[in-house]
Design brief:
By secondary structure, the chain is mainly alpha-helical. The chain contains 16 helices and 2 strands. It has a two-stranded antiparallel sheet with strand order 1-2. The radius of gyration is 21 Å and the shape is globular. The chain starts with 6 loop residues before the first helix and ends with a helix.
Length: 381
């Protein structure tokens, strides 16, 4: 299983490319450095996918690092004394399973091809240096969100990714339309981050103590209540009234917050405006923001799906919302005269279908459509 620690390299290589690009003297060399490191990450991801297929296993790997420790109150400490779990440590690392490896390979491969196209299409851009280090950083951030072992890291990466998208969309900052579109998209994406932050608080307040008491695969690792497996188990207990002061209402509130956060990133109505606003960015910015960023919403929806199933009728609402978005975006596309805006409407319609598929319970089918979206959207744009 040690070979799966290469997933850290997939996440870090694009970020290292962005860092090393500051040592380059010319914008073209910056682009080449970012492209090389991102391509190396894509090759590593494809290697791990091949390894997984050759050595198939249903088990997952969590490799995490702790940067600070929170000591719970005396009541919680007493409740978990038998499990030797006396502290809560927010963890950052990678969660490696089949979903992570496939999405990392898809994101880094698509990112490499997009950066290659940017290198050929943006030679006359005076801000080529900024375009590429921001683009490589965005790819690294999305990789970190895809491989996130818990809600804590997902929230952190979403905040960074939203800021990088704001820089990309506002690349031509001296043009008022681009600056306004960048700020509006930034605010809309912050709505999704706010929903995820509220879900984080609900988990901490209502399910945190329960998550701390749940056993982990490794008895020497402190249980993380924000980890995907622990969250699903705690929600299961809460839905069956096995957790004090937690019932159906709490699970519904948590599910709605998580679903709204994912819907914002998936550009569902009425949050689709941030994706349409990317048309004011240069072509490389449109490709990166409209293709890479929505993947984080699909991955979040897949990770928290075990929580959503315990919220009555919530999946039906998700399915209806996705279907309405798909139909509305298709009708909007028929009315467009601008080709870029028409293609973005098609992308929103595709994301609506992905959301509707999640709502009908087809997680595997929705993830398959997400990978297709990663390959199809750049070609259309």
């Amino acid at each position: 299983m040690g070979i799966y620690n290469l997933a850290f390299a997939i996440v870090l290589l694009p970020f290292l490319g962005a860092l090393f690009s500051f040592l380059a003297e010319t914008p073209r060399r910056v682009a080449q450095i970012c492209l090389f490191f991102t391509g190396l990450g894509a090759a590593t991801a494809l290697f791990l996918v091949g390894w997984r297929l050759r050595h198939f296993s249903d088990t997952s790997l969590d490799t995490v690092y702790t940067f600070f420790t929170y000591t719970p109150n005396a009541g919680v400490t007493k409740a978990i004394a038998n499990q030797n779990l006396r502290v809560f440590q927010p963890q950052i690392g990678v969660h490696v399973d089949a979903l992570t490896l496939v999405m990392l390979a898809a994101v880094t491969t698509a990112g490499t091809l997009i950066l290659r196209h940017c290198l050929l299409a943006s030679r006359a851009d005076g801000d080529l240096r900024r375009l590429f280090w921001v683009g490589a950083s965005l790819i690294a951030t999305v990789d970190a969100a895809v491989a996130a072992p818990n809600v804590f890291q997902t929230l952190l990466m979403w905040g960074i990714g939203g800021t990088l998208t704001w820089i990309l969309v506002g690349h031509i900052w001296h043009r008022p339309a681009s600056a306004f579109a960048a700020w509006r998209g930034f605010v809309v994406n912050r709505a999704g981050d706010a929903a995820l932050l509220l879900a984080f608080v609900v988990i901490l307040v209502k399910l945190g103590s329960t998550g701390l008491t749940l056993k982990t695969q490794d008895p020497d690792v402190i249980s993380d209540p924000f980890a995907w497996r622990q969250l699903a188990a705690a929600a299961d207990l809460g839905a069956h009234h096995a957790v004090a002061l937690v019932g159906t209402r709490t699970i519904v509130i948590l599910g709605v917050l998580l679903a709204v956060a994912a819907a914002v990133r998936l550009a569902q109505l009425p949050f689709h405006i941030w994706l349409l606003d990317t048309e004011d960015a240069p072509l490389p910015g449109i490709l990166l923001a409209a293709t890479i960023l929505p993947i984080t919403g699909a991955v979040l929806m897949a990770r928290v799906f075990p929580v959503l199933v315990f919220a009555p009728h919530l999946l039906s609402v998700v399915a209806v919302a996705g279907g309405v978005t798909a139909v509305a975006a298709a009708l909007m596309a028929l009315a467009q005269r601008d080709m870029a805006r028409l293609v973005l409407c098609i992308c929103i319609a595709q994301l609506g279908l992905i959301t509707a598929t999640f709502g009908t319970g087809g997680v595997s089918a929705a993830l398959h459509m997400t990978v297709i979206y990663l390959g199809l959207a750049p070609v259309l744009i």
